[in-house]
Design goal:
Length: about 120
């Protein structure tokens, strides 16, 4: 990780979340879980979250995303993303040891971190 926000070699982990269809009480519960950890983009109708470190806060964010996927069937995709100019938190650095797992395939045709709809 790097603490230099201007680093050209820095990147963040971007989570894109698609909600799952549900009846109203479950729909509201799903939205309530996502509101606390992600922001909504009405244009793409997806939720987005970023993290730049696998520290306690980062792991809690990932756990919350995967718990929401498990409970509600949301689709979560994790991809390495460009370092935002406004980002003031830690960021990952481009190193072969880190980049290789992000590009690995979890299983045939499914990128690491992408969960199928249940």
């Amino acid at each position: 990780m790097t603490s230099s926000p201007n680093s050209e070699d820095a990147w963040v982990l971007e989570a894109t979340i698609r909600t799952a269809p549900a009846a109203n009480p479950q729909w509201q519960e799903q939205l309530d879980r996502l509101r606390g950890i992600a922001s909504y983009d009405p244009e793409t109708q997806t939720w987005h979250a970023r993290l730049g470190a696998l520290d306690l806060a980062g792991l809690q964010l990932l756990q919350a995303l995967f718990d929401t996927a498990r409970v509600h069937g949301t689709e979560v995709r994790l991809t390495p993303g460009a370092f935002p100019a406004y980002w003031e938190s830690p960021a990952f650095t481009r190193e072969p040891d880190v980049d290789a797992p992000m590009e690995a395939q979890a299983d045939r045709g499914r990128p690491l971190g992408q969960l199928p709809l249940v």
